[in-house]
Amino acid sequence: MKKRQIIAAAMAGVMVLSATACSSGSSSQSTTAAGDTAAAGESAGSTGGQTLTVLLSEEPNEGDALTMMLNNWAEETGNTLDVQIIAYDDQLTKFPSMAKNNDLPDLIATTRLHQLYPDEFVDMSQYFDTSMFEESALKIVGKDYVSDKITGLPYNFTTTCVFYNADAFEAAGLEAPTADDPWTWDELYANAQTLMDKGGVKYGFAADVSRARYDILMYANGGSLTLADGDTFKVNVNCEENVKTLEDFVAANQTVMPQAIWSGATADNPADYFKNGDVGIYLSGSWNYSDFANTITNFDFALMPSPMGTVSQSSIIGGSALAVPENAANKDLAIEFLTWLYDADNFKTYLQQDKGLSSLKDIIYEPDTEDGKADYEVIQGEVEYVTDTFMVDESSAWRNYKDNEYRDYIKRAVSGEMTAQEALDAFANELSESSGWAIAE
To answer: What architecture is the 3-152+324-366 domain classified under in CATH?
Structure first.
């Protein structure tokens, strides 16, 4: 067993003890700050015996922090859980009919539904003092795209980051880059080839099939999806910088990446490729850290700072929110669970299991090993690489007009069906037509 797994096993035992020691206070009343809920819960908590229906987008991994906290709450309060799984893409298509038919869960863990359909969700500011949340987490993860309504409470606050197989690096004679001396993206691709030649991996580099992961390269090279234009925006997705970025990405898929993943030839998850040792460098996000620490047993892994593009380093912040449909059958019970979860002690327990960035002020994950501290320092450092261009794109709410189509055009370029220029021109035209924004010259 590698040293990270020994640490993870020890932490799991600590988490069990910590969970049983948490206060059982809960409330369906308003809370003014993290940690202030216990007193309200003494007189306002449910009497148990109710069922909270929770919608997730995927089966939770072993040791999933949210699942652990849901189970802890159910045990403490005497309530039960009905957990439903609907894949992310299916949620986008099914949610409107679910809302129309009044067939909604009580609580949804989501990255977008609450922002796409804000009228269908509770305004959380009516129940919680939102000043207890980190401003960037609340703005990016919790807020409606076009108003100030808080339609979800951020719980899984994340940043993109780069994992690497430390054993493969050692075998290939590579030293990992540091915050003071990061690689460029050209160096990453070159070293990915070295890992394949000397490090014993099948693929030097892999990335999640997500436009958010691909966009890290775009922002680092000075590109963007939109440009601010007074009170509106222009479409910039097919600019010269973006075309060059996609051309390089297509070339990398043909040499050092598992091309079948981004070309759409397989539905395999690249995280599995990294976990089984087939990938040397993996572009994903901080949300994978806990799972990797708990499940990777055949090699040591670590994190490196995001590489430099032609302009800067780049990362993207985001995450998931917990949202309550306005017409949920057990809306009050969902609010009660959230009040319990965001109690300072309970959220601390959640965060120690999640091992990620905190969405609450003054509560942070505290690694208890030198390896963990080094990894977490890299994760925290990634937040500093968020570019102004990303923030402009987020403010445009371009995904209200088109979303998965962007990723799909990138995949068509990777598969060879279209050139990079053709793919980005086609998406630029679609986004322009849907949004009414002109294409930048």
So the answer is: 3-Layer(aba) Sandwich (3.40)
